[in-house]
TrEMBL record, chain A:
Protein name: beta-fructofuranosidase
Gene that encodes it: LOC113730173
UniProt keyword ATP-binding present: no
Compartment(s): Vacuole lumen
Positions of transmembrane segments: 45-64
Family: Belongs to the glycosyl hydrolase 32 family.
Organism: Coffea arabica
Automatic annotation (TrEMBL), chain B:
Keyword Metal-binding: no
Protein name: Cell wall / vacuolar inhibitor of fructosidase 1-like
Pfam families registered for this protein in UniProt: PMEI
Molecular function terms from GO: enzyme inhibitor activity
Sequence ranges assigned to domain Pectinesterase inhibitor in this UniProt record: 40-181
Family the entry assigns: Belongs to the PMEI family.
Keywords: Disulfide bond, Signal
Signal sequence segment: 1-22
Keyword Signal among UniProt keywords: yes
Length: 661, 186
């Protein structure tokens, strides 16, 4: 279905030049007009008029200097005609950076968080309705947060989720439910659980499923009781032979776990999938909490999922990390490529421990070794322990949870992407939040220090109309439009090669670079930034750069950063404008590669095969519908970059209610 | 001599005058407790307020609500949010009055209606839910957004001629205090 073709773009720089009016012509007309009229008048008046026109013109000239970009672009296009490579199918032209500062040292526009809103933007219905995604899971309306109890059963993938049926804000939480054959095309089902018991009347919160040998399903979830105490409850399908698992029964003996001594009544939530204990008959489950400001994961043992015994000590604890929400704990294979059942352990496995930190709203994980006999998990690298080391996703992302897909033997990761616009806008548009495209999780055998996340292969079924751009040479300070038509629903795979000689010749560059404090893609360095501009309008008044940036220290070692820059993503002041990102390991001989899933107001960006991932929310006002464009760019000062890209359009996933229920 | 005495009297009175202006405005609905002299203020109130950016506002707001004496940190946060709700309601009333009395401000007033609608319908309910149920991060979102909405309302009046500045500032200041108390719970 996907058609592969290389395009020779009909881009004609001459057209752009002639469109931009030249300032000089209008000036001359005005000057000659006024001097013509005054021929009969005394010299004094003539001089006066001439001088005042000159003054007026200077005023106009300085005003126009402030809006110089389109005009200078026209002039630079002229100058660069000679430089464009005749063999490439794309004609890059020079980009005037948004700031005229020198590469280092000048105060660039600092990124702004939402708290810097100047005014309330007059959002139109067109702008707001464009924001809805086309192939990411989201309910028809209202609020969603954590993904819950994901599982595969009788041919269907199930997703449950925290949902407010009444409003676009968090509250009145129920368990929404949807099913899919392929993790992409979802069908809404009725609620699985509502807050209707004393043990969950104040909230049916996050939980996880455990599939027992034989196929029996148990669900453990947090309930907020009528006394506002957080407890763990047991639920199970009313009818296990129902592939849709429509009805659920709450164990009448709930709660099955209550906050133990020393644990706060409001610090006890989000039980994980259970795994088999070493004796092969009992089950172990973990959930997070905190003791003062130390985040911890506690483990309970059970044989029937009704009675539980708290194990001594904690699975792990990290000081100063605060409350651990949505703990996740699972093995990954260090040798093979498959996912592992949650109960797997032994040689050839490592265990991932993950926590969502309440304190800073980020998901952290670490790789380590699990010793079930001592109820201890130890990180491979204590410097990169849970909560202080690697993040699953460097953008707007929280409450993630994995499950083992026994059909395709994969470990699949779900994550909640919230909104970064104002609540007023959420109320206006009537909904808030999306889920990521589900990602496979495997151990990165090449680096040994991280996991790899990648959109499930079923996402590729949405691809159509492929366009390839090969070896586009991007000189320093240039951008290349990629004319692919509509640019709001895309799957992009791009790779970048930096000119070897220039890279080696550069002795030192931007040693202290950090995506979040960099000021984004407008900050030019010798060896970066370069990458893609997504959701950009033709005049680049709005743009979202996703880019690489190489910094180099004097000892010759280079560090590659991968960033997603929202600082100029929208003219609206009341939306998030952060620059997200981190360093990404790049091994010898590897090109820099990125995959981007663009879906209206969500962009998921994957670097180096999924070593680092960034989820962004963007809310453009102009770069929407047919006005959205895609560009390659190189804003470095000292190095040229050769880019290749393959771009597919993405169909809608047609997420709707399950028919005929 | 007389002028000297007069100056002394004035100088003696002045400090007490300035002090009285620094006293928090009396909340008449809950005024009785203010007149009871408490020898030892609740340690939690003291420590909590010391860790907020506006000790005076935190302290006076909490002290004027009798529920504060037995409250835990969650409860103290709820009291601040309650006070914020009162102020936001006053702001909405003021906006509605101004729409009639000052039609020249209709455009910014409409924007402010949108902002305060978000504060009253979304931010405050979310903060109350989050604090009551012990999921403080949602309360933090609500208070952070309140600051955004209030600033948006205030800035929609150009040339700094906003008739809502006092109320906006009071709501803003309370949201900052609330947010800092909520952060203590994370």
């Amino acid at each position: 279905m996907a058609a592969n073709r290389s395009l020779t773009l009909p881009y004609d720089p001459e057209l752009a030049v002639s469109d931009a009016p030249l300032l000089e012509q209008s000036d001359q007309a005005e000057v000659s007009g006024s001097s013509g009229q005054s021929r009969q008048r005394p010299v004094k008046v003539l001089a006066g008029i001439f001088l005042s026109s000159l003054f007026l013109l200077t005023l106009i000239w300085t005003l126009f200097q402030g809006q110089e970009e389109p005009r200078d672009q026209a002039q630079m296009i002229n100058a660069n005609l000679n430089k464009s490579s005749p063999s490439s199918s794309v004609s890059p032209y020079s980009l005037i950076p948004a700031s005229r500062g020198v590469p280092q040292g000048v105060s660039e526009k600092t990124f702004r968080g939402v708290s810097d809103a100047n005014d309330i933007y007059p959002w139109t219905n067109a702008m707001l309705s464009w924001q809805r995604t086309s192939y990411h899971f989201q309910p028809e309306k209202h609020w969603m947060n954590d993904p819950n109890g994901p599982l595969f059963h009788m041919g269907w993938y199930h997703l449950f989720y925290q949902y407010n049926p009444d409003s676009a804000i968090w509250g009145n939480i129920t368990w929404g439910h949807a099913v899919s054959r392929d993790l992409i095309h979802w069908l809404y089902l009725p609620f699985a659980m509502v807050p209707d018991r004393p043990f969950d009347v104040n909230g049916v919160w996050t939980g996880s499923a455990t599939i027992l040998p034989g196929g029996k399903i148990v669900m453990l979830y947090t309930g907020d009781t009528d006394d506002l105490v957080q407890v763990q409850n047991l639920a199970y399908p009313a009818n296990l032979s129902d592939p849709l698992l429509l009805d659920w029964i709450k164990y009448p003996g709930n709660p099955v776990m209550i906050p133990p001594p020393g644990i706060g009544k409001k610090d006890f939530r989000d039980p994980t999938t259970a795994w088999l204990a070493p004796d092969g008959t009992k089950w172990l489950v973990t959930l997070g909490s905190k003791i003062n400001k130390t985040g911890i994961a506690m483990v309970y043992e059970t044989s029937d999922f009704k009675g539980y015994r708290l194990l001594d000590g904690v699975l792990h604890a990290v000081p100063h990390t605060g409350m651990w929400e949505c703990v996740d704990f699972y093995p990954v294979s260090t040798a093979g490529d498959n996912g592992l059942d949650t109960s797997a352990n032994g040689p050839g496995t490592k265990h991932v421990l993950k926590a969502s930190l309440d304190d800073n709203k980020h998901d952290y994980y670490a790789l380590g070794t699990y010793d079930p006999n001592n109820n201890k998990w130890t990180p491979d690298d204590p410097e990169l322990d849970v909560g202080i080391g690697l993040r699953l996703d460097y953008g707007k992302y929280y409450a993630s949870k994995t499950f083992y897909d026994q059909k395709k033997k994969r470990r699949i990761l779900w994550g909640w992407i919230g909104e970064t616009d104002s609540e007023a806008a959420d109320l206006m548009k009537g909904w808030a939040s999306v889920q990521t495209i589900p990602r496979t999780v495997v151990f990165d055998k090449k680096t040994g220090t991280n996991i790899l996340q990648w959109p499930v292969e079923e996402a590729e079924s949405l691809r159509f109309n492929a366009t390839e751009f090969d070896t586009v040479k991007l000189e320093p300070g240039s951008i290349a439009p990629l004319n692919i038509g509509s640019a709001t629903q895309l799957d992009i795979i791009a790779s970048f090669e930096v000119d070897r000689e220039a890279l080696e010749a550069t002795v030192e560059a931007d040693v202290g670079y950090n995506c979040t404090t960099s000021g984004g893609a407008a900050s030019r360095g010798k060896l970066g930034p370069f990458g893609l501009l997504v959701l950009a309008d033709g005049s680049l008044s709005e743009l979202t750069p996703v880019y690489f940036y190489i910094s180099k220290s004097t000892d010759g070692s280079a560090e590659t950063h991968f960033c997603s820059d929202e600082s100029r993503s929208s003219k609206a002041p009341d939306v998030g404008k952060l620059v997200y990102g981190s360093t990404v390991p790049v091994l010898d001989g590897e090109k820099l590669s990125a995959r981007l899933l663009v879906d209206h107001s969500v962009v998921e960006s994957f670097a180096q095969g999924g070593r680092r991932v960034i989820s962004s929310r963007v809310y453009p006002t102009k770069a929407i519908y047919g006005a959205a464009r895609l560009f390659l760019f190189n804003n470095a000062t000292g190095v040229s970059v050769t880019a290749s890209a393959k771009i597919w359009h993405m169909q809608s996933a047609d997420i709707r209610t399950f028919p005929d229920l | 001599m007389r002028s000297f005495a007069f100056s002394c009297i004035v100088l003696a009175i002045l400090p007490s005058l300035s002090t009285s202006y620094a006293l928090p405005p009396l909340n008449l609905k809950k005024s009785n407790h203010i007149f009871m002299v408490r020898e030892k203020v609740n340690d939690l109130i003291e420590n909590t307020c010391r860790n907020t950016p506006d000790y005076q506002l935190c302290f006076s707001t909490l002290l004027s609500d009798p529920r504060s004496f037995d409250a835990d940190t969650y409860g103290l946060g709820l009291i601040i949010v309650d006070a914020l709700k009162d102020k936001a309601t006053s702001a909405v009333n003021a906006i509605n009055r101004l729409k009639g009395s000052n039609p020249e401000f209709i455009r910014p007033l409409i924007k402010c209606s949108i902002s305060y609608n978000a504060i009253l319908k979304a931010d405050i309910p979310e903060a109350i839910e989050g604090l009551r149920k012990g999921v403080p991060k949602f309360a933090e979102y609500g208070m952070a957004d309140t600051a955004v909405e209030v600033r948006g309302c205030e800035n929609s009046f150009k040339q700094s001629n906003s008739p809502l500045t006092d109320l906006n500032k009071q709501v803003y200041d309370l949201s900052i205090v609330a947010k800092s108390i909520i952060r203590m719970l994370l």
